[in-house]
Design a protein that fits this description.
With 136 residues, the chain is mainly β. It has one helix at 75-79, and strands at 11-15, 21-23, 28-34, 37-41, 52-57, 60-66, 89-95, 98-100, 103-106, 110-112, 120-127. The chain has one domain (11-42, 51-127). The two termini are 14 Å apart. The mean pLDDT is 94.
């Protein structure tokens, strides 16, 4: 596999509150995915360098986009139920032959309209089910 850019992401699908995957790539302008591991400091007083233990895996996402209330397959249709439902949503990302599909709790659906006039949204989320997020 050759190196690739982030142009033309092949898959961004997020479940709506009913569990139906929705392809919302067209409404997303940018996103961030993080898969950190926690660490515990285990440095003894007899050591000159830091010693650590690797702990639990996590995943967080933040999607950003342009508001589009046009149909049931838009980002607005997916995220508008974030404040009123408590469901994990499969979030599938794919590009260049690799994919990641963690179960995510979306914690907010933020709409922003600054003085300049654009109307955008942001949807942050965190790992829901304790399954280690793994890229294929």
């Amino acid at each position: 596999m050759a190196k690739t850019t982030g142009l033309a992401i092949t898959t961004v699908s997020i479940d709506d509150s009913g569990g139906t995957p929705r392809d919302i790539r067209n409404d997303i302008t940018n996103f961030e995915v993080s898969t950190p591991r926690a660490v515990q400091d285990a440095t003894g007083v007899d050591q000159s360098g830091i010693s650590r233990l690797l702990l639990l895996a996590d995943c967080s996402v933040t999607f950003n986009g342009v508001f589009n209330p046009a149909a049931t397959t838009t980002a607005h249709a997916v995220f508008r139920t974030v404040p009123s439902t408590s469901v994990a949503r499969t979030t599938s990302l794919g590009h260049g032959g690799v994919s990641l599909a963690p179960e995510i709790f979306y914690t907010d659906y933020q709409l922003t309209r600054p003085q300049s006039g654009e109307f955008t949204w942001q949807a942050p989320g965190v790992l829901a089910d304790g399954v280690v997020p793994t890229w294929s």
